Automatic annotation (TrEMBL):
It comes from Muricoccus pecuniae. Residues 37-266 form the Solute-binding protein family 3/N-terminal domain. The keyword Ligase does not apply. GO terms for biological process: amino acid transport. Belongs to the bacterial solute-binding protein 3 family. Residues 1-25 form the signal peptide. Keywords: Signal, Transport. This is General L-amino acid transport system substrate-binding protein. It comes from the Bacteria. CDD domains: PBP2_BztA. Coiled coil: none annotated. The keyword NAD does not apply.
Length: 342
């Protein structure tokens, strides 16, 4: 009797916890498919990641990752609606259900992952906090900036990183907070700030849009680890898995040498078991995510592999002009590494 009572108690507890999650498993994917459109949270405007072009069409690395995810879901890169969000509103918008997924220069941190009711997913961009100053300011390192007024973006990790650095080095500084990068840029150029502190890629993006980029210098030092990755709501493992393996697939396509130009030929001729799985010759990857077996083929045709996306929006030939650096594949000395897709 006692044994049966214990088993009954355990079963009841298991049932309670299995139904206590904030979202029903599969609810996100079902809702997106019923709507016929993905809703993607992006930046309000930063070159290279997400910015409207002269026609008002959004362009950038984050934008293309949203488009690729729409291809995985609908085989149509246009079935996505972009929601520009500030740093201080992005996580609230995701938590409230205003967006389905956040692709918005958002650093993965422990407290964000465990306290906001959200899940951080595979990083797709590695960065670090830096400072930009006038080139003629005779400043070569941050320790020379004691007493400086520093432009920062509210609601970012950069606020804390800057405060931690100056406090730990017994230096004083005055923060001036803004909602958007363009506001901070305007203040910097108007001499309201001595420096702008944010992630180095965004500093490069801001500098590229200034009237005289050569007048500004990004200091060489980096003061933090800033891995960007998408976020989704907790409680829906199916949607989490789909977004996670989508990001891995875009990276794996580059690792496997699959490009928008050769994807059909590689699919037709490859004998590599991993590549055959990736491209749907054997369909188990797509089936496991409830996607078309050709989901990766369709993605690469529409937006390219990770390297193609990076070079199109961030690379040395673009306005932003960033070498791959840590965002190179692990086989070429970088940090990008797709988890095994088998």
């Amino acid at each position: 009797m006692m044994k049966r009572a214990i088993l009954a108690t355990v079963a009841a507890a298991a049932a309670l916890f299995s139904t206590a999650g904030p979202a029903r498993a599969g609810a996100s994917l079902d809702a997106i498919r019923a709507r016929g459109q993905l809703v993607c949270g992006i930046h309000t405007g930063v070159a290279g990641f997400a910015i409207p072009d002269s026609r008002g069409v959004w362009q950038g690395l984050d934008v293309d990752l949203c488009r690729g995810l729409a291809v995985a879901l609908f085989n149509d890169p246009n079935k996505v609606r972009y929601t520009p969000l500030s740093s201080s509103t992005r996580f609230t918008a995701l938590s409230s259900g205003e967006i389905d997924v956040l692709f918005r220069t958002s650093t993965h941190t422990m407290l964000r992952d465990v306290t906001l009711g959200l899940r951080a997913i595979t990083p797709y961009f590695y960065d670090g906090h830096g400072f930009m100053v006038r080139a003629n300011a005779n400043i070569t390192k941050a320790s020379e900036m004691g007493g400086a007024t520093i432009c920062l973006i509210q609601g970012t990790t950069n606020e804390q990183v800057t405060a931690d650095y100056f406090r730990s080095n017994n230096l004083q500084f005055t923060p001036v907070l803004f909602q958007r990068n363009d506001q901070a840029s305007d203040a910097l150029q108007a001499n309201r700030c001595d420096a702008f502190g944010t992630d180095a890629s965004q500093l490069a993006a801001v500098r590229s849009t200034m009237p005289n980029p050569a007048e500004w210098k990004i200091l060489d030092e980096r003061f933090s680890k800033e891995p960007y990755g998408p976020y989704v709501r907790r409680g829906d493992d199916e949607w989490y898995d789909l977004v996670r393996w989508y990001v891995n697939a875009v990276i794996q396509a580059e690792e496997s040498g699959v490009t928008s130009a050769n994807v059909d030929e590689v699919k037709r001729t490859t004998t590599n078991p991993d590549t055959r799985r990736l491209l749907g010759v054997t369909p188990e990857l797509g089936q496991s995510l409830k996607l078309d077996p050709n989901w990766v083929v369709n993605i690469v045709k529409a937006v390219g592999n990770y390297g193609e996306i990076y070079e199109r929006h961030m690379g040395p030939k673009t306005q932003v002009g960033l070498a791959r650096g840590p965002n190179e594949l692990w086989t070429r000395g970088g940090l990008l590494y797709a988890l095994p897709m088998r």
